[in-house]
Amino acid sequence: DQARIALARSCIPAARYYEAIELSEPLMTHGDPDVAMHAAFVCGTAYSLLGEQLTRAQACLAVAESLCRAHHNDDVLPRIIFEQAGILAQQGQLEDAVKRYRDALVAAERSPSASGHTWRILAHNNLAYHLHLQGDPTAADYAHRGLTLAQEKGARAALPYLYSTVGEIALAHNAFDQAEQYFQEGLTLAQQFAAAERIAGLTAVRHHGPE
């Protein structure tokens, strides 16, 4: 069953979401709570990335969060909450998404593992971006904190996202030269990592304004 979950998890980066669901969903009622928790998380993530049945995605992730909290798995909790926030954002519930990104940040700061740094960085970025969408002036603070943290921890793969966010915030404040610098730095890194989605986004925003 652990191997089945590992296989389901490996399907996610390959965009084989239906296969991930088929493998993981039956294990959500497993007698081992650790197996059930990871199965619910993988299944909820797959439904979320599909963009279909978001209510089902939320239900799976709620099961995962409940099991995670019950068994004090502080390593996985930030990832679960982060995914829940993303679903709320997809549904246009920006205020609720911001609350969940704040929760993800708190959980990441309490995580005992090295992966906690990754989720701290990503939570700062997504919190900044969604606060920016709401016109909240604190967005820049979170974005720059995330950028500094990523640079300190050597999390270079996260930098294109952060440069994109700080660039959009700068653009909104008419700091055009600064925005151009951030977008260019993000684009250079995205090209190094062959991050096609970020390359497209950063190129578009440089030529046409915010994404």
What topology does this entry show?
Elements: H1 2-11, H2 17-24, H3 33-50, H4 54-70, H5 77-90, H6 94-110, H7 115-133, H8 139-153, H9 159-172, H10 176-192, H11 196-208
Describe the structure.
The protein is mainly alpha-helical. It has 11 helices and no strands. It has helices at residues 2-11, 17-24, 33-50, 54-70, 77-90, 94-110, 115-133, 139-153, 159-172, 176-192, 196-208. Helix 5 runs antiparallel to helix 6. It is elongated and about 55 Å long. 45% of the residues are buried.
Question: Shape, please?
Answer: elongated
Q: Over all CA atoms, what is the radius of gyration?
A: 18 Å
Count of DSSP-assigned helices: 11
Poorly predicted ranges (pLDDT <50, ≥5 residues)?
Answer: 205-211
Number of strands: 0
Note the main sheet: none
Please sum up the structure shown.
The protein is mainly alpha-helical and 211 residues long. The protein has 11 helices and no strands.
